Amino acid sequence: MRLLVYSSIFLLFFTACQPESKTKDNGTGLTTDPPKAKVSFRCEFVGEDKNEVPHNQVFLVVNDRSTKVADVTACDEITKDGYLNFQIPSNAIAACGGWYAGAGDYFYALEVKGKVVVMKGWQAEEQTDEGYHYEQHMVVPIK
Known about the structure:
Blueprint lengths: L1 H15 L6 E2 L6 E2 L6 E10 L5 E9 L2 E8 L3 E2 L16 E7 L2 E10 L2 E10 L10 E7 L2
């Protein structure tokens, strides 16, 4: 009986110590590892021009290191519960964007093989197609 108890404890211990496995995201089909970096976007309001158009700068922050991503008119954080509304995959680790005067710019970040990939998309009132037109915008190594 003791052998059975000790064997069970031994198996339970080693099963719990297994590394986290890769997961497949149904939204993108990408296989991703658990995040290794603290990643976020920071939006900074710069001011308005003479026509009262707002100007913002978007920064990607990876482990407290900032990299400028773009200049946009509007920028706010997009939380995970809003990803679906902006066609952002569920395995994105950060997102931001904003709408101003009939157009918007949107960004999301994915962690892929030790790098953060930033995707940029846009949408406009006058576009003839649907969607956010996401394309790879930049890649930042995790340090």
